[in-house]
Design brief:
single chain, alpha/beta, 6-stranded parallel beta sheet, 5-stranded antiparallel beta sheet, elongated
Amino acid sequence: MSQLGLHPYKTAMMFITLFLVLVIIFSFKRQNTILNTLNEIVNDLDFQQFALNQHSIVSETDVFGNITYVNDKFCQISGHSREKLLHTNHRITKSNEHSEHFFQVLWDTISNGQVWHGEIKNRAKDGSFYWVNATIVPFLDKHNKPFKYVSIRTDITQQKENESLISEKNKFLHLLTNTMGEGVYALDKKGICIFINLQAEKLLGYSANEILGKNIHNLIHFQDEQGNLIPVEQCESLNSVQRNQSYINEKQFFTRKGGSIFPVRVHSDPLFNQQDFSGSVTVFQDISIRKKTEEALKKAKQQAEEHSQQKSDFLANMSHELRTPMNAIIGLCYLTLETPLDELQRNYLEKIQSSSNVLLDLINDVLDLSKIEAGKITIENIDFKFEDIINQLFHITHSKAVEKGLSLYYYLSPAIPKILIGDSLRITQVMTNLIYNAIKFTESGQIVISITLDETDNTSDNYVNYCTDKQLKIEIQDTGIGLTQEQQNKLFTAFTQADTSTTREYGGTGLGLSISKQLVNLMKGKIGVKSTFETGSTFYFTLPLIHSNSNSDTPTITNNRDDSIINEFIIVDSSETHNNLTQKMLSELSLKYHSFKKIIDYDYLSKFLSANDNTIKHTLTCIINAHTLIDNPILLNQLEELNNKKHHCTTLILNAYDVSRSPIPELPIKPSSILHEPLLPSFLINAIKESLTPSEHIKDADKTQRPKQNKADFNHVPVLLVEDNKVNQLVAKALLKRLNLNVTVANNGLEAVELFETRMKLTHTS
């Protein structure tokens, strides 16, 4: 019975024991799981804290602000050791940048259990400053009271420095734009104003607050001068910058705040962000005053032109009225001088004629000046030969030089094309002015006029239309009184002379040089002077070299194809200047020459005379100044000896102009040609060619230069003379009758037409 009763109890105990073992086993397993989880959480927290410490500046404080923990970055940026920082108040890094109110707000926030965010400037141990972006998190107990604070910071020192730099630049740009004196505004890509300077506010009458964020077109650029509306899609400045193009215009109008319209000069440029259009910047000026000034200047210019035209018309009329009696005086003097007169009468009349010519030249200069100023002179572009100009100049200037005992030389480069295009009349006028000027201011010595080729001044706009690298250069060199630098600076100005004293020796108005300069400018050239005081001057001007389409080749002497013939030239001229000019011409013609002053060098002559090589034929051409040959028996003997030899030797006699010598008498030798002044390339070349083909007759190489001056006889050819001045009628009629013309006088144009019609009727009926 007892054994049976104990068995259930044991069974129950076994079950209870087994259950407790299972519970204990389960508890151990659960505890291990919890421990593992806690270890993982701790590890995660360690990793997170490590990552946080690597990125941020971390510290912990108690509720009084005393530091209880700092990480390495805090130590690094502050410069303090961890031992120094722990249990120290955060005021150790205070920079005094922030106010007490700033810190009061901070503490009020975190004391109330709220997170604080902000930027703080701190001071490091070495005194340097650094900025941090800080977040302070309060840790709360079960009563929601903070028991510690954790601060997490990021270093933003570089960011602050960049912001400071940008701020300084912005201040500078604002200051710059505000002191420009011009209005400046910037727009975004939609045309909304995002910047405006003080001057723009002043010009437009708007404050920055009133215009920023507004559509600039609708506010200030919506109408033109007449008040007509300009749709935004037709706004030229906006359309241009949106096409990535700059826009500049001086004919735009802006509207002020009060509604008034004013003219502006606008310059807009597009702005880009990377390569994308992001807006535009515009600079504008109020040009109201300038517009009024331009209008006033336009009216003043118009009035000045009217006055200038009136002056020119007056001068032209006065010049005409003055020339009419002057021509009568000159003509009557000429006719009277042709009659028998005693010496005193002839002297008086010659002085009247000379003075009248001077006065007529002055009148002509005034008329030319008035025409130039009125723009009534046109420059012709026709074919001409420079040799013709030189021939004409020589005949009208050499008598002036003779009167003063001066030597006058002309040189024309053989390299200049025979036919050119230009205004030969104006070229002659300029050269005449300069040559007469040189003669007037030269008391003794010589004047050399040379026309050569020069390099084109490619920097000058005058030559932009001419495809040539050469230009004509005309120089007039004298041995006159010369000019100081101050005097040179005053030349080429109307009514100005180098010598302005009341006792000056030389007369004139100074118009000639002024007219010459303006004519040269009209011909697209340049004019100038080089001078040494009391030594001499060189006036020069350059002109474009324009070839004629009908241009013939520049005359040259071609080498004989027969290599057995050697051509040589001898120059014998006691005039050093003329000798040099002849040498220069032969050199430009690529001819071999020898130059001597009075006699031919004996050694050279002997060498030439002793040449007996039958395979080589020497030809010798002697170019000799006639005045050097006269009364020079040694030179004559040398020429006779050359002529007696079998060698081919010819002589060209140069009748060089020399005022100190008498006319050339008959020479004892027979030259092949006689050359007259001026010595021109074509005449010299023709004479040389003729000398190489001897003829029994002496040839005048420039016979076309000196035509016979036979008195004209027109055998009573009828002439109709139209002249309203009775004195001029008398003079003209007398001159024409001397040419054996049958003169009929008409007092005006109507009378001339009636006489002509009557004459025609008589001709048809007879």
